[in-house]
Each structure stands twice: as structure tokens, then as C-alpha cells.
Specification:
It contains 13 helices and no strands. It is an all-alpha fold. It has one domain. α5 packs antiparallel against α12. It is globular, with a radius of gyration of 18 Å.
């Protein structure tokens, strides 16, 4: 019983930390270029993860994984996802970003049908339908006539990030299907590959050749430590001790906390249509997660916001 309580608390902690990332990113983007923000976040995360893997004697396996084409592709896909999210968050709200990013669970349910030949049951079908309606309500506020503007462009960029994370999750599952793959080593290698993948975009599209230090720079180490490394391992530790369904339901606290924090720190409010859409998206995520969990054990397919 104690172990179960500890696992629930660990999963809850992961959800809260991931949920805090959207508001922190929005604050950081006030003065930090989005392309450089992504690069430095994963540079910090890579340095810490490499130090940890070296201390437990796994550094050689990390270096070996970095030569694997799938790991390189994981890093590039992850970098593109974060770049789209961060760029999108310069134009849309933290609340919308939190909701739209988590639609990747619905996209994964669809892709898994074709890649892993998973059963596409009624729960997944319902999840897709209400998820699509939810996305429409969040991005448009429920209005039929929608004018193109920065907010809509930002929403679409974040939705694009969710699509890229769908491919990232599928690739991640394939990489972990191999025998003897160590999750810590693979995660560390993915962090390094993501930083390497984000650097060219920062050099080409970032404002200036190198960003200056601003008061909001605390957001970089915060997201590296508290929104990348710590929550992933809390979630993974908890998943070993509670069911995948329980974990998926608890992880919905990520979106709830993200919306609450965006309202508290940034003064963001969802419209009536957006509020209905947020409920539909969370319901769709819960249904898709529950149906997937019933088919087999979950892998580390959480998006590392």
C-alpha cells in the first residue's frame, strides 16, 4: 500500500511539474528567443543527464546510442516539436498550448493502429471524434467564422508540434522494443541529440548569433531540470508500481494544473467555447489512454514538455 501511495504521489508530481512548464515557457519567451530557448534547455538537460549516466557507468551505452540512426531521428523530431511549440507560444496562450500539445495522445491512438496493428476499439473512435471537436473549440473559441491572426497561427504551430510528437512517441516505442535497451541511456542520448538538432535552427533563425542574458533566463534551467529530467523519472518510477490506466488518469492533472497556473500567473482565461473544448480534449485523452492501457503495458511515451 505504501509503495502504491508513493507511486501515485510520484506520478502526480510529474504531472504538476510538466503542467508548470507552459506558464514558465511563456514567461521565458518574453525576452528569450524561442530557438535559443529550446537549445539551451536541452543543453542543460544533456549536461545533467550525462553526469548522472556517467556516475552509474552507463556513459559508454549513451555514446553507442548516439551513433544509432533512430536516436538521431528521435533528437531531430523532438527538436522540431519543441521549436514549433515554443514559437507557437510566442503567439498563443499557455492554456491553449497545454491543451493542444496533449492531443498527441489521440494522434498516437490513430497512428498505433497502422504502425503497431493495435485494435482501434470504440473508445478510441469516440476519443478521436470528441478530440477533434475539442481542438476546434479551443482554437476558434466556438466561432464558425474565424479570422486568421497571430493567435490562430500560434495554435496551429502548437498543433503541429503535437503531430511531430506523435512520430516521436512512435519512434520511441520502436527504439525501446529492442532487447537490452536501457531507458536512462536512451533518454540521455535523446536529450543530447535534441540539443544538437536544435542548434542549427537557433543559429539560422534565432535573433542574433548568441542571445544575451535576461532576467527571464531562470526559465532555462527550470525547464531543463523540473520540466525535463525530474518529471520523466518520477513518472517512469511511478508507472512501475501503478497500472497504466491509473497513471494516465493521474497525468491529466498536467493539463488542469497548466490551466490553473496560466490563470494565476498570466491572467489567462478560456472563452466559453474554449472551456467546453478543454473538457472534451481531456475526456478524449482519458479515453484514448484507457483503451491503449487495456491492450498492454505502457512505454515511456509521455511528451517531455
Amino acid at each position: 500500500m505504501k509503495g502504491s501511495k508513493g507511486a501515485i504521489l510520484a506520478t502526480l508530481g510529474a504531472g504538476l511539474l510538466w503542467g508548470s512548464s507552459f506558464s514558465v515557457i511563456k514567461i521565458g519567451l518574453r525576452s528569450i528567443d524561442p530557438y535559443w530557448f529550446v537549445f539551451f534547455r536541452f543543453l542543460f538537460a544533456s549536461a545533467i543527464a550525462l553526469a548522472v549516466t556517467a556516475s552509474i557507468g552507463k556513459l559508454s551505452s549513451v555514446l553507442a546510442l548516439l551513433r544509432h540512426p533512430v536516436v538521431v531521428l528521435l533528437g531531430v523530431t523532438n527538436a522540431l516539436s519543441f521549436i514549433l511549440q515554443f514559437k507557437g507560444q510566442t503567439m498563443t496562450t499557455a492554456a491553449n498550448a497545454a491543451l493542444l500539445i496533449n492531443t498527441c495522445t489521440i494522434f498516437v491512438a490513430i497512428m498505433s493502429r497502422f504502425v503497431f496493428r493495435e485494435r482501434f476499439g470504440p473508445l478510441k473512435s469516440i476519443a478521436v471524434v470528441i478530440g477533434v471537436i475539442g481542438v476546434y473549440l479551443v482554437t476558434t473559441g466556438g466561432r464558425i467564422a474565424v479570422q486568421a491572426g497571430p493567435g490562430l497561427v500560434g495554435d496551429l504551430l502548437v498543433l503541429g508540434a503535437a503531430l511531430f510528437w506523435t512520430f516521436f512517441i512512435i519512434l520511441n516505442k520502436k527504439a525501446l522494443s529492442g532487447r537490452g535497451v536501457d531507458v536512462r541511456s536512451l533518454t540521455t542520448a535523446m536529450f543530447v541529440a535534441t540539443a544538437a538538432g536544435a542548434l542549427p535552427a537557433a543559429l539560422v533563425f534565432g535573433r542574433g548569433s548568441f542571445p544575451g542574458v535576461t532576467p527571464q533566463w531562470w526559465a532555462v534551467p527550470y525547464t531543463a531540470v523540473f520540466c525535463t529530467i525530474i518529471p520523466f523519472f518520477l513518472w517512469a518510477w511511478g508507472l512501475k508500481r501503478v497500472s497504466a490506466t491509473t497513471s494516465s488518469v493521474i497525468m491529466l492533472t498536467e493539463v488542469v494544473f497548466a490551466l490553473a497556473l496560466a490563470a494565476l500567473l498570466l491572467g489567462e482565461r478560456l472563452s466559453g467555447g474554449g472551456l467546453v473544448g478543454s473538457v472534451l480534449i481531456m475526456g478524449a485523452v482519458a479515453l484514448a489512454s484507457r483503451d491503449a492501457a487495456a491492450e498492454g503495458p505502457a512505454g515511456p511515451d509521455v511528451v517531455p514538455e
